[in-house]
Design goal:
The chain is mainly alpha-helical and about 170 residues long. The protein has helices spanning about 20-40, 45-55, 60-85, 95-125, 135-155. Helix 1 (about 20-40) packs across helix 3 and helix 2 (about 45-55) packs across helix 3 (about 60-85).
């Protein structure tokens, strides 16, 4: 039979040791946390700015802004899962994983929001922003993203080896 070759297929849910499916889900919910903060502080960000960044939809479409933003956040969650795997923090303590997610979200804020965003806007529109673009709203949103993403990732990330079980 073709299925009895003895070869096993790689587990694609665990690239670099991190669980990408969990990264996607935790990033998705982290994006909702970001959106909740931004919706209260600066609703135009999700309604106008985010759709404009991606060049989709009419300005003012808040649903499209949410969809685009949350999908972007979910993809970044996969990148976070890779970081967890590469740093060997799968199954780490809440403090370590949530801390790592907060550091990851700060890096995303710095690279994507403070540097890449104003450069992209300068290329794609007649508007301009200073480089770096330091926005307290974006910083607060990214910290909320990291907190929610890290908490969910930690809650569902199985330790590499159950505590108290040593290999013989």
């Amino acid at each position: 039979m073709a299925t009895e070759t003895g070869l096993s297929s790689p587990d694609v849910s665990v690239p670099f040791g991190g669980n990408w499916r969990l990264g996607f889900v935790s990033g998705f919910f982290g994006g909702i946390g970001f959106g909740a903060v931004v919706s209260v502080v600066d609703p135009a960000l999700l309604r106008v700015t985010i759709p404009a960044i991606y060049g989709v939809g009419p300005p003012g479409d808040v649903i499209l802004g949410w969809v685009v933003h949350v999908m972007h956040a979910a993809v970044l969650g996969i990148a976070f899962a890779a970081v967890v795997g590469l740093t060997g923090r799968s199954g780490a303590s809440a403090r370590e994983q949530i801390g790592e997610a907060l550091l990851f979200s700060l890096a995303v804020w710095l690279v994507l929001a403070a540097i890449a965003l104003p450069l992209w806007i300068a290329v794609a529109s007649p508007r301009s922003l200073p480089v770096p673009y330091i926005s307290n709203t974006m910083l607060a949103g990214h910290l909320a993203y990291g907190m929610v993403m890290g908490t969910i990732y930690y809650a569902f990330d199985a330790p590499a080896e159950p505590p108290g079980r040593a290999e013989h």
